[in-house]
Amino acid sequence: VGDSSVLSCPNNSNIITMLTWKISPKVGGPCSLGYRADTNTTDRTNCSDSMNWKFRPDLSPDLEIQQVGIAQEGNYTCEVVTPDGNFHGTYHLTVLVPPRLSLYCDEHGNAVCEAAAGKPPAQLSWLLQSNSSLEEKSHDNGTVTVLSRLTACNTSVTDTTCTVFHPAGNWSESIAC
């Protein structure tokens, strides 16, 4: 999320007659970008300004999505017409949202590790696994908050470490409750 992404279109020829990107996002309606070489014209239908050709379509058929968000998830199909034949490629764009990590002590002296608003849901683990509970809360935007509460069974342990595992990265934090 927030990065730019470039989707390449299969092209086995230096001569493009026609090029179309058909986009079906999970959120909102479909859109398309088209290019005709014989008239050197482009056409845009219902696409946001964040989606455009990487360069000029007569030079490169690649699509660039700037500041990718969850709303851009979906299917992207490129169709190229050349003198050598027709070619197409399809992508399914999945957006990763790194969770926000917080580690704190609750009112009972238990360590609480929270990975907020990640996509997909993060996995949490405690360095010294004791008695822990796990809760998940789904949000309307497709992200999930995962919360783990470590019940203090051994008072001789002063530092507790929570590790968050996520496709966008892994993080660890320690706390003494």
UniProtKB/TrEMBL annotation:
Keywords: Disulfide bond, Glycoprotein, Membrane, Receptor, Transmembrane, Transmembrane helix. PROSITE patterns: IG_LIKE (PS50835). Signal peptide: none annotated. It is found in: Membrane. InterPro entries: CD200R, CD80_C2-set, Ig-like_dom, Ig-like_dom_sf, Ig-like_fold, Ig_V-set. This is MOR1B protein. Belongs to the CD200R family. GO terms for cellular component: external side of plasma membrane. One of its GO terms (biological process) is regulation of neuroinflammatory response. GO terms for molecular function: signaling receptor activity. Residues 1-94 form the Ig-like domain.
